[in-house]
Amino acid sequence: MKAILRFSLGMFAALLLSQCVSSTPQSRIERNPQLFSRLSAKDRQLVTGGVIREGMSRDAVFLAWGSPDRVSAGTDRGREVESWSYVGQRPVRTFNMGMGFGYGGWGPYWGGPYGWGGYPYWGGGPSVMYVPYTAGVVEFTRGRVTRWMASPQ
After folding, report:
1. Checking DSSP bridges between strand 112-115 and strand 118-141, what pairing results, if any?
2. Rounded to whole angstroms, how far apart are CA atoms 145 and 62?
3. CA distances from 106 to 18, 74, 114, 117, 148 (A)
4. In 5-150, at which residue ranges do the beta strands (DSSP E only) sit?
5. In this predicted model, what pLDDT tens digit does every residue of 33-81 receive, in sequence order?
6. Which positions ≥6 away from 117 have C-beta within 8 Å?
7. pTM
8. What is the per-residue burial (b if ≥16 Cβ within 10 Å, else e) of 108-123?
9. Is the sign of the CA dihedral 49, 51, 57, 62 positive or negative?
10. Hey, what domains does the chain have and what are their CATH numbers?
11. Would you state the torsion angle of the CA atoms of residues 104, 107, 108, 113, taken in this order, to the nearest 10 degrees?
12. How many CB atoms are located within 10 Å of the residue 67 CB?
């Protein structure tokens, strides 16, 4: 039984850690060598550094910046346009003040020397929350980048 529990916990930890690994241009290139080999020498060099330019293909942008968080389609002066949006998250420091009433287990609580009951808590302090922002937008016409914007890092 302990072996099964250890194995399950190990698999859960591995799954959790694998979700934390961020995708980089190098990791996307390694997973998609056929896409990378079809790029021009100039675009291969830019993609390796995570840089895009006007005229790049969708495949090159995917390798450089990854999968978009949102894809939109529309028209501009009669031409079909596709827009890829990338979302980032910035940490924002906050200070919380909290108080309330919680429920605990067995022990000395209000209303008796021992038993089940509640207890007040007061707390607070600094914390961090993450706020989403538009990190970049890429527009394609006929499968090629016509315009792009990126937020400063």
Report:
1. unpaired
2. 12
3. 38, 62, 7, 8, 60
4. 70-76, 79-103, 107-109, 112-115, 118-141, 144-150
5. 999 999 999 999 999 999 999 999 999 999 999 999 999 999 999 999 9
6. 103, 104, 109, 110, 111
7. 0.67
8. ebeeeeeeeeeeeeee
9. positive
10. 2-89+131-150 (3.30.1450)
11. 130
12. 10
- Looking at residue 5, its pLDDT comes to 46
Measured between alpha carbons, how far is 137 from 146 in angstroms, rounded to an integer?
A: 11
DSSP 32: -
**Which tokens hold the place of 44?**
């291969």
Sheet arrangement for strand 79-103: 70-76, 79-103, 118-141, 144-150
Q: Residue 45: in which H helix or E strand, if any?
A: helix 41-48
Radius of gyration from C-alpha coordinates of the chain? 25
DSSP collapsed to 3 states, 49-72? CCCCCCCCEHHHHHHHHCCCCEEE
- Indicate the SS3 state at residue 8: helix
Amino acid type, 40 = S
In a 10 Å sphere around its CB, with 0-12 CB exposed, 13-18 middle and 19+ buried, how is residue 83 labelled?
Answer: middle
